[in-house]
Write a structure and sequence with these properties.
single chain; mainly alpha; two-stranded antiparallel ribbon; 4 strands
């Protein structure tokens, strides 16, 4: 999936800035959860404001590059539910980043 809206300050594509598999550093913390080191502090705050389910879907999709059907199997939800949740997350992040840039 290509995220084509540019982040205002850095003139990069949202996906490149935030959810690129190769550009984010990730590791499991003591709880067994993944932790990501974000380059963008604003984005990190927005990510942390997501629900646990939204964070999980985002992490599996963009951090670990799993397909929607794979995420659905892991979380015992439909592929459509994964896609809908992921799309809502992206819209929310884009809107929040745009508002903060103004």
């Amino acid at each position: 999936m290509v995220l084509d809206n540019h982040v205002i300050e850095s003139n990069t594509i949202l996906g490149e800035e935030s959810f690129c598999c190769s550009e984010r550093s990730s590791h499991k913390n003591d709880n067994g959860n993944y932790h990501f080191d974000f380059k963008n502090e604003q984005l990190e705050l927005l990510f942390n404001s997501l629900t646990e389910k939204q964070q999980t879907i985002t992490t599996l999709s963009y951090g670990l590059c799993l397909k929607d059907y794979e995420i659905g199997r892991l979380l015992n939800i439909t592929q459509q539910a994964v896609s809908k949740t992921r799309n809502l997350i992206i819209k929310r992040l884009r809107r929040s980043l745009s508002e903060k840039a103004l």
